[in-house]
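Input record, target 12 of the design panel.
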């Protein structure tokens, strides 16, 4: 099984505001960078989108080490998701789960891979995380430059 390291990050200028996401995929000597932006979004939506798009970029089942600085994403996928689904997409306080559309997409994408979820401190010098952050911010810059 192919081993892949993935670094993802989301960014938002204002929350909500224009946002971007970035991902760095590394398999051996191969590196692939992906990114995108939305005009009106939130940071959490961009963090989720980064992971979804990075996993979608994989063409077959892989052994993935996925690094994110988003505790929201990591706790959501590893701790909260099963309970949300069991409660019909309600939180413990019975309110609707925010970003349910993206959580459902992430749940599906994650089931297609063998993933080890790893938290890294943001803006702390981890090269892959720094590059994913730069890609997310570059995507916002490009979006804003287009007007």
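The sequence produced for target 12 reads:
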């Amino acid at each position: 099984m192919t081993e892949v390291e993935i670094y993802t990050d989301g960014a938002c200028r204002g929350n909500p505001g224009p946002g971007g996401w970035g991902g760095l995929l590394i398999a051996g000597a191969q590196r692939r960078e992906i990114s995108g932006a939305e005009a009106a979004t939130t940071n959490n939506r961009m963090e989720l989108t980064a992971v979804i798009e990075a996993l979608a970029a994989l063409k077959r089942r892989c052994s993935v080490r996925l690094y994110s600085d988003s505790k929201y994403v990591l706790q959501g996928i590893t701790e909260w998701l099963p309970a949300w689904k069991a409660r019909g997409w309600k939180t413990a306080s019975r309110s609707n789960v925010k970003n349910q559309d993206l959580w459902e997409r992430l749940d599906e994408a994650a089931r297609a891979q063998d993933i080890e979820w790893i938290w890294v401190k943001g803006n702390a010098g981890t090269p892959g995380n720094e590059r994913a952050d730069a890609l997310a911010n570059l995507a916002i810059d490009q979006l804003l430059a287009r007007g």
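The chain has one domain: 3-146.
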